Description:
The complex is a heterodimer of chains A (353) and B (318). Chain A has 2 domains: 2-225, Rossmann fold; 238-351, CATH 2.40.50.140. Chain A contains 8 helices and 20 strands. The longest helix of chain A has 18 residues, at 168-185. Chain A is of the alpha+beta class. In chain A, the strands form 4 sheets. Chain A has a 6-stranded mixed sheet, sandwiched between helices. Chain A is elongated. Chain B has 2 domains: 2-57; 93-317, MetI-like fold (Orthogonal Bundle), CATH 1.10.3720. Chain B contains 12 helices and 4 strands. Chain B has helices at 2-57, 74-80, 95-127, 130-141, 148-159, 164-171, 185-209, 214-221, 226-254, 258-263, 271-279, 285-317, and strands spanning 60-61, 67-68, 81-83, 90-92. The chains are: A alpha+beta (353), B mainly alpha (318). Chain B: The chain crosses the membrane at residues 32-59, 104-126, 135-159, 186-206, 241-259, 287-307.
Amino acid sequence: MIDVKNVTKRFGEGQAAVTALGDVSLTIPEGSFFTLLGPSGCGKTTLLRLIAGFELPTEGEIALDGESIGHLAPNNRPVNTVFQNYALFPHMSVARNVGFGLEMLKRPKAEIDSTINEMLDLVQLGEFATRRVDQLSGGQQQRVALARALAPRPKVLLLDEPLSALDLKLRKGMQSELKRLQHETGITFVFVTHDQGEALAMSDQIAVMSAGAIRQVGTPEEIYTAPQSRFVADFIGDTNIVNATLLGFDGDAAKIKFGEGTPLTVHAASTSLSPGPVHVALRPETIHVVDERAETALLRGEVVDSTYFGAGSQMLVRLEDGVSVHVQVSTPRPVGSRVGLECDTSMLHVLED
Amino acid sequence: MGAAAHIARPDAATRLRAAQEVRARQRRRTRLFLLAPALGIIGIFGLFPLSIALVYSFLEPGTYGGVEWVFSYDAYVQFLFERDIFDDTLSFNSAYLQIFGRSFGLAITTMIGTLILGFPVAYFIAARPPEQRNFWLFAITLPFWTNLLIRTYSMLLIVRDEGFVNLMLMKLGLISEPLEMLYTDGAVLAGLVYSYLPFMILPIYASLEKFDFSLLEAGHDLYATRTQVFRHIIIPITRPGIVAGCVLVLIPALGAYITPELLGGGKKLMIGNLIALQFGSGRNWPFGAAAALILMAVVLIALLVSLRAGASKEGGHG
């Protein structure tokens, strides 16, 4: 288990100092596949580097299984990293790359050799042991990097956008491969990515970050279906964010209305919001298109665009207040026609700003 | 129509073959034109004089310099043995071997000195942001703007008895008598290290410039200490640059002439001075030529052996 307590990281000094992480606290459960998700510059890689020991925190503490490790050098932490560019040693064979960690730990030769074989089998590169790393393809290098980082059996494996250099098909394959490796080894994986699809597909838990802070931590399902803030809703999937008026709360549920429509009872990220204009998240796949005059229609607008994507079409509907909404349909309405939008109110979600 | 197509086909194939031949000829001609100037220069100013030296080394010395066109391998014998003036008996003489030994000693020490001084400098430059590197490289090449002779003379002014170093030390009261630094091996060594340092820095820099510094983090991450990262990652990856730097320093240092002449005062001979002497006041051209060729042979063998060793070491990893 990793405990990040009130960690702040500033680069530079005085006036020129840039805060990469501001007072971040986070608990990463043991044996989980944990993802740090956010746009570039949000501080996710900095957090990873702090756990690895490449950077020291400006303030705060990092503990691994209850022991403080924030001050230790990288070579004194039972934590290994898979680098974004793999950082394989070009002058060594695949086998020596994989065995390097154990060699530095001065393990007996027999143990190193058997671990190398075991790891290469694990990543299905058994017959490549004697190759030079520059003779391998990108996907194979990726596997060597994984085997090298797993060979010393670290308590935590850190992965810094390891799939970003691979093409789409290879990436899909590696996603399930990583999931399998995590499952088989039981090692805690901390995975950094800016790709929300990757995060949703692989993670046990996701921490969504932006501007050096953690916005929300939860399972992929929680993050997807119950985003707390406008940022998270916006970052995960093609969420529509529409305007509504908050009338008040009924216990945990919020009472809202769209325009001059009838009041609705929906979920809310927080009960501390004050009545007035709010934003509501609306997933494209939860919306149904109905006739404009249908009584069940919650929102009304005009179709301004329609894109065919194979499994269906995506329509862009401009609402009366000018906000555009994406809707997924099997048979699109013609551009220019007026439609009503209907939605299961239990899928609506009032956001914090 | 059918007949016309039949005729056209072999015609097209023939034309294609002819075009292929023209291309191949053009390629050969281009290669020749590109190589010709270099080959010409190497031939005229390299191989031709070398052949002259080879021929001269097997002739007898003329009384006032030059050569007598009489075959003799005396020059090579003279290198190891001394011929008695009266009865022509040969006795072993290590004087010239000692000069060779001294030269190798000094050249190897120079190489090690430039490596120890040069590696950190090259590393420092390679670790700068790219826009700053050119400035540092410019600073390294700055000495080349001034003639080596001038630079060596200025070193002479610094290390001589009334020179800057002695004056400062005496002013500070650390010494009462000037230290004798000029005309010592130390002065020659300092001069050689100073002269050849850029030749060590630049190739090492070239190999470090492409160095992926994230490999250092990867090494630390995999439990290597700073020393282990240096030994197992930095050194092996920059080995080609280190080898190139060592060759570029060792070989010219072996044949150095100006530095030992000025800073060694001609008292401490190096091979370069010995050879020059034979063509000058020594008036023994065959012996000078033989000494030069022996030096070349030794360097060539040493180079081949070290390259072979480097190659097999490299192969061991893969």
